[in-house]
Write a structure and sequence with these properties.
Keywords: Metal-binding, Nucleus, Zinc, Zinc-finger. One of its GO terms (molecular function) is zinc ion binding. It is found in: Nucleus. One of its GO terms (cellular component) is nucleus. By secondary structure, the protein is mainly α. The protein has 2 domains: 196 residues, no CATH class; 102 residues, no CATH class. Helix content is 61%, strand content 1%. Helix 4 crosses helix 6, helix 8 packs antiparallel against helix 9 and helix 9 packs antiparallel against helix 10. The longest helix is centred in the C-terminal third of the chain and has 31 residues. The radius of gyration is 29 Å and the shape is elongated.
C-alpha cells in the first residue's frame, strides 16, 4: 500500500517518497511478540480449549510448569458457579487481614493477549493463600481418593509460588512500558524508543542475574525480539524527530542515554532534515525569527564593563549562523516546556 502511495505522489508532484522511511510499526504488536517469546519459551503448557477442558501439567527440567499449573487451577475455579462461590467464601472467612481483602475471582488468560497471562498469574499470586485453600478443599470434595489426591497434588509449593511471583514481575516490566507508551489524550510516538530501550534494559539485565536464571532462555529470546525490531527504527526519521519535537524534553533522552557520539549524530541528522524543510518554506535567506532589537546605550556600556569576553564571541557566532540553524538552535536551547494537561500537538498549534 505504501509503495502504491509513493507512486501516486511521484506522479502528482514529482517528489520522491520513500516507503521504507515512512513505515511506522505498531509498537503494541512489538511488545506482544517480545512478551509472547518470553512466555512461550518458559512455559510450554497449552492454553485452555473449551473442546478439551482438562489441562495436563507438563514437566520441564525436573520441575512442574507453574504457569500451566496456575492455568489448570483457574480453569477448575471458574468451571461452575458452585466453585466460584467456594473461592469467594474462602476469601471471606476470618481471620481477615487488615484492611479486609477485596473478594475477587481468578482470571483465565487467552493466547491472543499476552497481558491476560500477566493478569492471570499476578491475580493468582496475590491470592495464593486462598488458592491453596481452594485446591485442598476442592480435593476433599472429590468422589474418590484417587481424584482427591490428584487434585491436592495440584497445590503449588512455596518455591513454585516464588517462581510465579518472579515471572509476574518480569511481565510487569512489559506492562509498565506499554502503559507509558499508550495514550488516548495525545501523540505517543516520542515515547516509542524510550519504552523499547527501558524494556530491553530491564530484561537484559535480569537475564544474567542468578535470581532469574531459570528464566534466562526466555529472557534472551524476548530481548532478541526487541533488538530485532529496534534495529528497524533506524530506517525512519520519525522516531527521533518526534522526540525532539517534544518541547518538554527535546534531546534530553539522547544526552542521558545515548552517549556523546550518538547524541551528536542524532542532532546532526535532525539539522539536515530541518534545513531541507526550512529552505523549502523560506528560501536561502528566509528568516522567520523576530527582528533584532536595537541595543540601547546603557546596554552597550554595561557590556563594556562586563569581564566575560566570551559572551561577545558567542553572540557573534549566533549572528553568523544561517537563518535555518538559528531557528533550529533557538528551539533546541529554549526553556519551553509543555504545560500540564496540554498535548504536544496543542503546544505546536
Amino acid at each position: 500500500m505504501l509503495v502504491e502511495f509513493a507512486r501516486r505522489i511521484k506522479d502528482k508532484s514529482g517528489k520522491t517518497w520513500i516507503p521504507k522511511k515512512r513505515r511506522i510499526r505498531c509498537l503494541a504488536h512489538v511488545f506482544h511478540l517480545a512478551t509472547r517469546a518470553l512466555i512461550s519459551t518458559y512455559s510450554k503448557a497449552p492454553f485452555y480449549d473449551p473442546e478439551s477442558p482438562d489441562l495436563t501439567v507438563s514437566m520441564t527440567d525436573g520441575r512442574r510448569d507453574e504457569i500451566g499449573l496456575v492455568r489448570a487451577i483457574v480453569v477448575k475455579a471458574r468451571s461452575s458457579a458452585q466453585r466460584k462461590q467456594l473461592f469467594a467464601d474462602i476469601q471471606r472467612r476470618p481471620p481477615h487481614a487488615c484492611p479486609e481483602p477485596e473478594v475477587t475471582q481468578l482470571l483465565l488468560d487467552m493466547p491472543i493477549r499476552w497481558s491476560s497471562t500477566y493478569v492471570m498469574i499476578d491475580r493468582a499470586e496475590k491470592k495464593k493463600k486462598y488458592v491453596d485453600t481452594f485446591v485442598y478443599e476442592l480435593g476433599l470434595r472429590q468422589p474418590t481418593q484417587e481424584k482427591c489426591d490428584q487434585m491436592i497434588q495440584m497445590k503449588l509449593t512455596a518455591d513454585e509460588w516464588k517462581r510465579v511471583g518472579l515471572f509476574a514481575s518480569l511481565l510487569a516490566h512489559a506492562d509498565n512500558a506499554q502503559q507509558k507508551f499508550s495514550s488516548d489524550a495525545g501523540p505517543s510516538l516520542h515515547l516509542a524508543l524510550p519504552a523499547l530501550e527501558a524494556l530491553h534494559k530491564a530484561w537484559d539485565s535480569r537475564s544474567i542475574q542468578s535470581k532469574y536464571m531459570v528464566f534466562s532462555t526466555g529472557l534472551n529470546a524476548a530481548v532478541n525480539k526487541i533488538a530485532e525490531y529496534y534495529e528497524h527504527t533506524a530506517d525512519l526519521d520519525a522516531y527521533t524527530m518526534a522526540m525532539l519535537l517534544d518541547p518538554s524534553f527535546k534531546d534530553a533522552h539522547f544526552k542521558t542515554y545515548w552517549g556523546a557520539d550518538l547524541h551528536a549524530d542524532a542532532i546532526q541528522h535532525a539539522e539536515k532534515i530541518f534545513k531541507r524543510h526550512h529552505l523549502d518554506m523560506y528560501g536561502e535567506d528566509g528568516d522567520v525569527t523576530s527582528p533584532k532589537e536595537k541595543v540601547s546605550k546603557i546596554s552597550k556600556l554595561l557590556r563594556e564593563l562586563s569581564s566575560d569576553e566570551g559572551e561577545d564571541d558567542e553572540e557573534d557566532e549566533i549572528a553568523n549562523q544561517s537563518p535555518w540553524l538559528k531557528e533550529f538552535n533557538l528551539y533546541l536551547n529554549s526553556g519551553h516546556s509543555c504545560p500540564p494537561g496540554m498535548s504536544i500537538i496543542q503546544w505546536w498549534g
